[in-house]
Specification:
The protein is α/β, with parallel strands linked by helices. Helices cover 46% and strands 12% of the residues. It has a five-stranded parallel beta sheet with strand order 3-2-1-4-5, with helices on both faces. Helix 2 runs parallel beside helix 4 and helix 4 packs antiparallel against helix 5 (77-88).
């Protein structure tokens, strides 16, 4: 008969990308359901990639998404519900070190620190150049549409 493999062994055999998603991707998804940012979030929880978050990143998500919700006239509680769902399917990481100052925008340093702590292969962002230095840690920087294409092509 056919062997049944435990999830841990299946995950080991499959390539699962560890990913950090920049806030601008979530804001883009909140603005349009037609773009790659929204489509990427629809693949969660994914079997080909795992989202990594930290307290600092969740706070930034909350701040920016609530500004966007208010701009759209949506209840702020929808942001809390979304973030609860997102946290439930993400790896929560703590960073025990600082790499600051590292990036051109010091406000993004905590994202690179999270990516290093998570051993992420990618930071997904619309602002590729903001994270050019990530390559020094072996972390790729990729746009949502390109990452979506990557995980779909590996089906």
């Amino acid at each position: 008969g056919e062997k049944v493999w435990p999830d841990a062994i299946k995950n080991f055999a499959m390539k699962i990308y560890e990913v950090v998603i920049d806030t601008n991707v979530l804001v883009a998804a909140a603005r349009s359901q037609r773009g790659a940012s929204y489509a990427l979030l629809q693949t969660l929880p994914g079997h080909k990639w795992r989202m990594n978050i930290s307290s600092a990143l969740l706070l930034e998500y909350e701040s920016k998404l609530k500004i966007e919700a208010a701009r759209q006239g949506r209840p702020l509680a929808t942001v809390d519900e979304f973030l609860d769902s997102l946290a439930a399917v993400s790896n929560r990481r703590q960073t025990y070190f600082l790499l600051r100052p590292f990036l051109r925008d010091p406000g993004d340093d905590f994202i690179i620190e999270l990516a290093v702590a998570a051993r992420a292969q990618f930071i997904v962002t619309h602002n590729i150049w903001d994270f050019a230095e990530a390559a020094e840690y072996g972390i790729g920087v990729i746009r949502p549409q390109d990452f979506l294409r990557l995980v779909k092509n590996e089906s």
